[in-house]
Design brief:
This protein has about 625 residues and is α+β, with helices and mostly antiparallel strands. Helices cover about 25% and strands about 20% of the residues. Bound molecules: flavin-adenine dinucleotide (FAD) and 2-acetamido-2-deoxy-beta-D-glucopyranose (5 copies).
């Protein structure tokens, strides 16, 4: 295998001008100051906000007024007429939310045929992605209109937004941001709705749906003198999903960095959170690939952040978290030459738990050499008796042949044989990256009842095999009795960029989640107990990995000390940038930078998005 050719891009950039970013066609349709007056009755709710002000004297935002964001039923909630005027300015793109499962419940939306269809496809993420409001983690929506449906139950919005703007132009995004800010109502940004912590929903909100901002443009040669890049790039709307951009790149003999979930967004929340990928052990994270980002900020203005414009925002947007800085409308990312991929997939269990864990330990001991060889693996361990089951969803080896991959895996597989564990890997090779992505990672089923926690285990724990630290880390990880969803991965700063990616990412060889859940009809006491057990188990992981962090994109919705876990030493700098661009907290999501000043009033056994969003003293 040869993974060292990375720096060898064209050296001509030094003579060329800085980054340029022509807007995509849908971004040329913008709201201007002169338009506001002509909007008639709607205009008072649609004016722009105050321009950003950096205040170096304080790291805290303008003192928030007391009270809550305006909620349906409140006196200040906009009247139907105001919503209808707003809808007119949007050219009819405003949707009043109807829960996806509403056809299964008595009432005006009841529809037996549609109900059968929704019931049969409930676990299919495409169904939810095509819906304007669905939040795939139903747990955080509050399960107020679920499948399977119970005819005696009611169907209410729960944590779903009140209204959704089906955006197809930047102007509509600007109008929506201005409306929410001026009316002081909660604002949500939703792309696919895949967020594990339910951050793409929120009760009593106006939601901006980015799904239809899905244009893709090929840029044969993007010049970014500051970042030292001259080469091919793709610019896409923030609604683009992995599969579509992978194909566009594949058609040009190129690859772009995206997650293994091929129906998950890659230019929306994924990338702002960092974004890990099967190619990360080679090229780093998705946030490292960004050349330019266009967005609508809290004041309603459309701007571009790049290495030469709005550089503070450009830094923050690449790893500093989603739903925080504005509504991203498009992103330009680097493309790399496509390369051959070799993969292996297999499954095993054992006759005893002891043999099983010895077999897994033999793998664990190889995490540094596997990651440093540029490979990535995505695997699960499912609790069971007499032993758990190990599923290698994909051992992914960029630029390797099957012979090379077999050589890498054989010492581990030999250890499994010696433990009387039978395993028959299915190997495959692909001449280019796109077909490998599509064949290796099928669309995953929706898990709407799971709670998870995660940790980026530090490479340092592996540096002295069988040392006390090594053993303590292994013990903490292998004894949770929870479902383990894990990635042997590294995410070096391979491109030498300066962004807000959590430093713990640069040091890890294991991004690992643990998950547990309960039956949909579980009582509150059971839910609380499951939640509490996960909190205890997460504390064990943290105690074994002091100073490490956790990946916000796949994380615990109740993470203790989330500022430190998700943002590390970047937090103070990120907070200053947040306070400059969004002093009033127009963009708010649980655990987002600067979110401490507000909280959702939730009474459920698992905190959800059903209540009012209120200022915290
Ligand atoms: C099947 C599956 C596979 C996954 N695989 C990977 C993987 O390989 N690597 C990885 O890193 N993660 C992975 N994830 C986690 C994934 O990155 C997150 O779910 C991610 O947040 C999804 O982003 P989205 O924009 O599609 O989803 P959404 O749920 O719509 O949005 C996620 C968050 O981003 C915000 N957001 C969305 N669009 C914008 C925008 N345009 N501007 C500002 N904020 C925005 C939302 O408000 C929300 O807070 C996977 C998840 C699933 C369900
Ligand atoms: C892939 O391997 C080939 C030789 O087999 C080498 O020339 C090339 O540089 C490698 N690509 C990367 C990205 O390392
Ligand atoms: C917005 O206008 C369109 C077109 O007139 C209409 O179909 C839609 O129902 C309206 N939305 C709301 C919330 O009234
Ligand atoms: C999910 O739905 C999509 C779109 O309708 C369909 O193409 C796909 O085959 C479905 N997947 C499964 C597993 O049923
Ligand atoms: C959203 O807008 C697009 C483009 O106008 C349209 O095709 C689509 O049907 C709309 N979706 C919904 C759910 O209204
Ligand atoms: C770590 O565990 C291994 C395997 O159980 C054992 O051989 C070794 O002595 C342990 N190391 C320490 C420092 O206890």
């Amino acid at each position: 295998m040869h993974l060292l050719g990375l720096a060898a891009t064209a050296a001509t950039y030094l003579l060329l001008p800085g980054a340029t970013a022509d807007p995509l066609p849908f971004e040329r349709i913008q709201l201007h100051e002169r338009d506001i007056a002509s909007l008639g009755k709607a205009s008072s709710l649609l004016s722009f906000g105050d321009a950003p002000v950096a205040d170096p004297a304080t790291s805290h935002r303008r003192a928030p007024p007391t009270g809550c964001k305006v909620f349906p039923g409140d006196k200040k909630w906009p009247a139907d007429k105001a919503w209808s005027n707003f809808n007119n300015t949007l050219n009819g793109a405003l949707i009043k939310t109807v829960p996806l499962a509403a056809p299964c419940y008595a009432g005006p939306n009841y529809d037996a045929n549609r109900c059968s269809y929704v019931t049969a496809n409930w676990a299919n993420s495409s169904l939810h992605e095509m819906d304007p409001a669905s939040v795939m983690t139903g747990l955080y929506q509050g399960h107020t209109c679920q499948i399977p449906s119970n005819p005696d139950d009611t169907c209410t919005l729960g944590g779903l937004p009140s209204y959704v703007v089906n955006a197809t132009t930047v102007k509509q995004v600007q109008l929506a941001v201005n409306f929410a800010r001026n009316a002081d109502i909660r604002l949500i940004v939703r792309n696919t709705g895949h967020d594990f912590s339910g951050k793409s929903g929120g009760a009593g909100s106006l939601s901006i749906w980015t799904h239809n901002l899905n244009a893709i443009e090929y840029v044969p040669r993007f010049e970014d003198q500051k970042q030292g890049y001259s080469g091919p790039a793709f610019r896409g709307g923030s609604g683009v999903i992995g599969r579509d951009l992978f194909k566009a790149a594949g058609d040009k003999g190129l690859l772009v960095i995206g997650g293994e979930g091929q129906d998950v967004g890659i230019l929306g929340g994924y990338l702002q959170n960092g974004g890990h990928s099967p190619m990360s052990s080679v090229y780093g994270l998705a946030a490292d690939q960004v050349l330019s980002i266009s967005l609508v900020t809290a004041d309603g203005r459309f701007l571009t952040a790049s290495s030469t414009e709005n550089t503070d925002l450009f830094w923050a947007l690449r790893g500093g978290g989603a739903s925080t800085w504005g509504v991203v409308t498009s992103v330009t990312v680097r493309a790399h030459p496509s390369m051959p991929i070799s993969t292996a997939q297999f499954i095993f269990t054992a006759k005893s738990s002891a043999a099983f864990w010895l077999g897994v330990r033999s793998y664990w001991e190889r995490f540094i050499p596997y990651a440093d060889a540029g490979t990535y693996s995505y695997f699960m361990i499912i609790p069971g008796a007499p032993a758990p089951t190990f599923i290698m969803l994909g051992f992914w080896a960029p630029n390797m042949t099957t012979t090379e991959t077999t050589a890498l895996l054989t010492p581990w597989l030999d250890d499994l044989s010696a433990l009387d564990i039978s395993v028959k890997p299915a190997y495959a090779t692909y001449p280019t990256t796109y077909p490998a992505l599509i064949a290796t990672w099928p669309q995953e089923a929706v898990q709407d009842n799971a709670i998870i926690g995660s940790r980026l285990f530090p490479r340092s724990a592996w540096e002295a095999p069988n040392s006390e630290t090594f053993n303590k880390t292994w013990e903490a990880w292998s004894t949770t009795n929870n479902l383990l969803i894990s990635f042997n991965i590294r995410a070096p700063n391979a491109l030498g960029v300066d962004n807000a990616v959590l430093p713990a990412w640069r040091e890890t060889v294991l991004h690992t989640m643990q998950g547990s859940g309960f039956a949909p009809n579980a009582d509150d006491a059971t839910k609380r107990a499951v939640r509490q057990a996960l909190t205890v188990s997460m504390a064990n992981w943290k105690a074994a990995t002091p100073g490490a962090g956790a990946y916000i994109g796949e994380s615990d919705a109740e993470e203790v000390g989330w500022q430190e876990s998700f943002f590390g030493k970047n937090y103070d700098r990120l907070l200053k940038i947040k306070n400059k661009y969004d002093r009033d907290g127009v963009f708010w999501a649980k655990q987002a930078v600067g979110s401490e000043c507000m909280a959702v009033q939730s009474n459920g056994p698992i905190p959800d998005e059903n209540g009012k969003l209120c200022r915290v003293k």
